[in-house]
Design goal:
The complex is a heterotrimer. Chain A is α/β, with parallel strands linked by helices. Chain A has helices spanning about 40-50, 70-80, 95-105, 110-125, 140-155, 170-185, 200-205, 220-225, 230-240; strands spanning about 1-15, 15-25, 30-35, 55-60, 65, 80, 160-165, 190-195, 205-210, 215-220. Chain B has a two-stranded antiparallel sheet with strand order 1-2. Classes of the chains: A alpha/beta, B mainly alpha, C mainly alpha.
Chain lengths: ~240, ~300, ~290
């Protein structure tokens, strides 16, 4: 069952091609990883799917509905939610307020007590229960990242786009984050994840897609992708050559 | 709970007193309070939109002027309440135009745009009145002090109640989230464009209605009186003076400002604008959180 | 043909004045992030001092110009050191500083204007200096206008050299790019920012001195000039001196054409241009992309 279908997607910024004729699908219930060197177009792709950017060409379908060109709040209401690479929590609101706001707006007319219950559930789920009344700006980086995930989940998405949620975390925190991603999928939410921490991608993902200068150069199981010579050349090659 | 009851009782008593005031108060007190209500409406509506979102609108005088000019054009022809309604509607649509074309501008650019809008409106109207209609000024219907007083009281009351309701609703929180991070609030399902524009329009329509009522006090208006850019800046100053973080801040600011204005214009008529300028610079530099900030700090030290 | 030339050269000369009016604000906002809405008041004070010295003591406006340059530079510097540097310290973000300084400048506008009214009253004033006409290709223009154009081109040239060749000029350019990066390079950013505000005040004051030779002046004229300066810097891109030269010339020519067609709509046309530009290209014609 395909949940998200991207066809021939193209986006350029002032002549610079960020995404070029990209097509792929996300299957329902899977964890799909997206990797690629810096500037490969990963965040641009997330911005296109979530509606922050409008594609120049190509179409995006979510289920049967065409979503390319829709505004972000519409796409969110249809069931796609996201986190941001540079954390964008609401700094002067408490943790609970951050989550409850998302819960009350993503679905039409959700009763207040149900929103509260959802918020409490997510606080526990993401390990934020102890800091729930703190202002978001006072949280540590790892908690801010967890809050972003909790806020995204509060919109009750069918698909969540996670943009480098493990960047800047220490090894223990990374392990926690990996457990969290698995748990999200087990809740029934499909995961599409951009990550630089390769170990996490290899452990978590059912499938992996590799972007290079806006084009897809490989797709498959983590093992297949790892042994793909093209990938080793542009991605791993570059990475390991540096070390 | 107790605190809530006490404040409700306090509000009730104040309201009761204000409603009965015309039966025992002097005409002067009615005029002074009408002025206070006017500044309360201008300031609270400004804070309603600009407080949480962080957009600086300098178009208050456009909406106020639209109300004043509506009164100047139709006040002799239609019933008063209809004039008020028309003034409010015209301001609503002016805000709609500004909102649709310019709310995507960020920071200082939105401020400059709204500032330019007022001047554009003023100069277009000046040109139109001198060259097309050939009028240099218009006479406005005069109302009794008591009528103006009651209308302004009602308007100020409705504005405050509406703002309080908005702040406590999920939309109030959503407006705040726009000020904190607009992109993130779009991505959690908030139609930020619609919310911003609608709030801006509604807040502006209160200003328009206020303009209609207050125009009756001038008896004679021309475009320069109606669209005086001062009315764009004074509400911001009152909000800063009172402190924009709590609803009672702007109200306090408006009261203090009007009272000072009354005293100073009679005592030192030639220096009072100079004094206000100095006060403004002082408050912004040394009391960035306004009167509310002082009260909060006092309360905190008492608790500790 | 002569009409066309008249409009064009008239526009060019007007543009020179506009550019001069705007240059100071352009530096103050472009580098220091102070949207100095009291800019026109500085200009007004410059104009009235020149008028006063000329009518009472018979001092030539061109001498007053130099005097004003020094005095305004000094006061501008002090003002930044006392007021704006404090606002920079208490504002949590650049956006908050912009809002705070905008409101402070609005207060300042009242202070300056009302002190001026107390000293000089509110009636129209004026004098004529070097107004003898000069013939340019068949069209006649006052000599004082040509001097103004020459001065603003000269100032633009000096600033261009200052910004590109000297150490402090480079520091100012660095600061306008990124305040934090400038700090890292070991530049005393506070000093540079005060310098910028001081230059802005200097430019405003001298522009006022020149304007007093050509137009009638009064203590409530400041806002008109602030608005013209705002339009020009939006046209040319905030913080770009060459941009505001270009913006001034464009506005001058547009104004010249519109006032030929329908004089009453000149200001309306200015505001239309201003708002359309804000919407279409808020970084200005010469500004950096967003």
């Amino acid at each position: 069952m395909e949940l998200l279908k991207v066809e021939n997607l193209t986006k350029s910024f002032g002549g610079l091609l960020a995404i070029h004729k990209l097509s792929f699908i996300v299957k329902e219930g899977e964890i799909l990883g997206l990797i690629g060197p810096n500037g490969a177009g990963k965040t641009t792709l997330f911005n296109l799917i979530s509606g922050a950017l409008k594609p120049d060409k190509g179409r995006i379908f979510f289920g049967d509905a065409k979503i390319s060109g829709l505004r972000p709040h519409k796409i969110c209401k249809m069931g796609i939610s996201r986190t941001f690479q540079d954390v964008k929590v609401f700094p002067n609101m408490t943790v609970v307020e951050n989550i409850a706001l998302a819960a009350t707006f993503a679905r039409e007319r959700i009763p207040t007590n149900e929103a509260q219950r959802l918020a409490t559930d997510l606080l526990r789920f993401c390990g934020l229960i102890e800091v729930k009344n703190m202002l978001a700006r006072d949280l540590s980086l790892v908690n801010q990242k967890r809050l972003e995930v909790a806020r995204a989940l509060a919109t009750q998405p069918k698909l969540i786009l996670l943009d480098e949620m493990m960047a800047g975390l220490n090894p223990t925190e990374t392990l926690d984050a990996m457990r969290l991603v698995k748990a999200i999928r087990d809740r029934g939410c499909t995961v599409f994840i951009v990550e630089h921490v390769l170990r996490a991608i290899m452990n978590l993902c059912d499938r992996v897609m590799v972007l290079h200068y806006g084009e897809k150069i490989a797709e498959g199981t983590p093992e297949e992708v790892c042994s793909n010579p093209k990938v080793i050349e542009v991605y791993l090659g570059e990475k390991y050559a540096q070390n | 709970m107790n605190f809530k009851l006490i404040s409700l009782a306090l509000i009730g008593v104040t309201l009761f007193f204000l409603v009965l005031l015309p039966f025992f108060g002097s005409p002067y007190s009615l005029v002074l309070l009408s002025n206070i209500f006017m500044y309360v409406v201008l300031t609270v509506t400004w804070v309603m939109f600009c407080g949480p979102t962080g957009y600086i609108s300098l178009a208050t005088s456009a909406f106020f002027g639209a109300g004043i000019y509506t009164a100047a054009v139709i006040s002799f022809k239609v019933p008063l309440l209809l004039t008020v309604l028309v003034g409010a509607l015209i301001s609503f649509f002016l805000a709609l135009i500004i909102g649709i074309v310019s709310l995507r501008l960020k920071g200082i650019y939105f401020a400059m745009f709204t500032f330019g809008f007022v001047e554009l409106l003023l100069h277009f109207l000046l040109w139109y009145e001198t060259n097309i209609t050939g009028t240099t000024g218009r006479v406005v219907l005069t109302l009794s002090n008591q009528t103006v007083y009651y209308m302004m009281l009602a308007l100020a009351f409705v504005t405050i109640v509406f703002t309080q309701y908005l702040n406590n609703s999920r939309y109030g929180m959503a407006l705040k989230s726009i000020g904190e991070n607009e992109m993130a609030s779009e991505h959690i399902g908030i139609d930020t464009a619609k919310l911003k524009i609608l709030t801006y329009c509604v807040s502006s329509s209160f200003v328009g209605a206020c303009g209609v009522v207050m125009a009756t006090r001038w008896t004679y208006v021309d475009p320069k009186i109606a669209f005086n850019p001062l009315y764009s800046f004074i509400p911001i100053f009152m909000a800063i003076l009172g402190g924009a973080r709590k609803l009672y801040g702007p109200i306090l600011g408006a009261i203090v400002f009007t009272y000072l204005q009354e005293i100073l214009t009679t005592r030192i008529p030639y220096y009072y604008m100079l004094f206000f300028g100095l006060l403004m610079v002082f408050v912004i530099t040394f009391l960035p959180e306004g009167i509310v900030g002082i009260i909060d700090r006092r309360l905190k030290t008492k608790i500790n | 043909m002569v009409t066309f030339l008249n409009i064009f050269i008239g526009g060019l000369l007007m543009g020179g004045i506009y550019a001069l009016v705007a240059a100071g604000l352009s530096i103050q906002y472009g580098v220091g992030r102070v949207l100095n809405i009291a800019h026109g008041e500085f200009l007004m004070v410059g104009a009235l001092i020149t008028w006063y010295l000329f009518t009472i003591y018979g001092i030539s406006p061109l001498i007053s110009l130099i005097l004003i340059a020094f005095v305004f530079f000094f006061f501008g510097f002090l003002l930044d050191r006392s007021l704006f540097s404090r606002l920079r310290n208490i504002s949590p973000s650049v956006a908050a500083f912009e809002a705070n300084s905008l409101m402070a400048c609005f207060g300042l506008q009242f202070v300056i204007q009302n002190i001026a009214i107390v000293i000089w009253g509110a009636e129209l004033k004026g004098f004529s200096y070097m107004a003898s006409p000069v013939n340019i290709l068949g069209a006649l223009f006052g000599a004082n206008r040509l001097i103004t154009l020459a001065y603003s081109l000269g100032i633009a040239g000096i600033f261009y050299l200052f910004l590109t060749k000297t150490r402090y000029g480079k520091a100012i350019r660095a600061a306008s790019q990124d305040i934090f990066a400038a700090n890292l390079m070991g530049i005393n950013i506070k000093f540079v920012l005060s310098l910028c505000f001081a230059f802005g005040a200097l430019l405003a004051g001298t522009a006022g001195a020149l304007i007093s030779m050509m137009y009638s002046i009064h203590t409530t004229m400041g806002m008109e000039y602030t608005v013209i300066a705002l339009i020009v810097i939006v046209l040319g891109g905030l913080g770009s001196i060459t941009g505001s030269m270009l913006g001034g010339l464009i506005l001058g020519i547009v104004g010249s054409i519109v006032s030929y067609l329908e004089p009453g709509l000149t200001l309306v046309a200015y505001y239309m241009l201003f708002m359309i530009l804000l919407l279409v290209r808020p970084t200005g014609l010469m500004g950096r992309g967003s």
